[in-house]
Amino acid sequence: TFIPVESKKLKGFFGYKAEIFTENFGPDFRGEETFFSVFAIFFPAATGILAGANISGDLADPQSAIPKGTLLAILITTLVYTGVAVSVGSCVVRDATGNVNHTIFTEWTNCTTAACKLNYDFSSCQKTECPYGLMNNFQVMSMVSGFAPLISAGIFSATLSSALASLVSAPKIFQALCKDNIYPGFLMFAKGYGKNNEPLRGYMLTFLIALGFILIAELNVIAPIISNFFLASYALINFSVFHASLAKSPGWRPAFKYYN
Q1: What pTM value is reported for the model?
Q2: What are the Amino acid permease/ SLC12A domain coordinates in residue numbering (predicted)?
Q3: pLDDT surpasses 70 at 108
Q4: Local structure of 103: helix, strand or coil
Q5: Nearest by Cα to 222 from 46, 81, 51, 44
Q6: Distance in angstroms (rounded) separating the CA atoms of residues 9 and 151
């Protein structure tokens, strides 16, 4: 973000500018998008904090590791996401045409947008959809980076790690539910294999469900569906803690005293 190329200014990338940050600071929902529709797209990015709790059986000291790891994960992800938003929001305007003919060579006195103040006229984007800018270009992170393949590698790494964490942890939780026979008819998934009691049948079921969502091939459609599942999971976790605390059962002895 510190080395903007001259040709990328046509695509809305100008480097760190106070006027760009000020213009991008407020919301700009377009079409049918609202706060909650955008929240549904973003929310799955913040759901990895349960990865440690989901594999608590594999941890040496889960009572100590899970609270520390979860709180540290929340802190790090908050800092990273905030840093990325501030960084890109300070460098790239919302709309850009990529057309060299929209360069302003004479000084305008009635400029109201950040792009105009930086000698570019992208006002045509108000009438027609432009291919570049924060609102239009999904590859904006690659555009502002000094080495674009590094961004692609990071996306693949984060996607694979999150997917593997879910594919490994979900079958184990489902296996535990089946062992308790909470849901009649699913007892076949309680069977484990090997010395670690691996839920191979659960792995196959999870694979098939994941494959069905992958075949949709549209992230903006999948994300709200996943958000509903995660929100339901978090609601049930919070209700479980509330109920156990209220009932004061003998088995309710939380090691982390700051639970809510």
Answers
A1: 0.74
A2: 8-260
A3: no
A4: strand
A5: 44
A6: 20
